[in-house]
């Protein structure tokens, strides 16, 4: 028998489906926001145009992992919806699998999405650390320029007398 009994079906729809669907909607929003913010502010954070190719490659890996996480989360959402459709309608087009198997596939993709998201965050941190640690030539030049400005003597502008204290 492919269709669960009414109590199991109700519990699946109330907890498994509803909680997984809400988790995935929130997770998709989080992944999308992380991707958009990191791309938007990549110039300010790591100086993407002036940084080394190593830092750029690390950041591109991070963005690729975020896209992979987004795809996995979308696939997970599709499979949990298919599982719910199987419970409600007893038959769905394309997949004629047991609802529990469809839910298991969904949860597997949730774990893949979470792993890809964590890996993306780690690579983003590595890119930032490489950029701060000398992978960014512009940042190093800017820091040197600031150091030079601070080492200039504090003499008054020409034509102005030095202030004396009373």
Structural write-up:
There is one protein chain. The protein has 166 residues and is mostly helical. It has a domain at 23-134. Helices cover 78% and strands 0% of the residues. It has five helices and no strands. The protein has helices at residues 6-40, 42-46, 53-89, 99-135, 137-151. The relative contact order is 0.15.
Mean residue pLDDT: 83
Cα-atom Rg, whole angstroms?
Answer: 27 Å
- Which residues form runs of ≥5 with pLDDT under 50? 135-153
Largest sheet: none
Report the span from N to C terminus: 99 Å
Order of helices and strands: HHHHH
Number of helices: 5
Query: Roughly what fraction of the amino acids lie in strands?
Result: under 5%
Label the overall shape. Answer: elongated
DSSP helix fraction: over 70%
* Coarse structural class: mainly alpha
Number of strand elements: 0
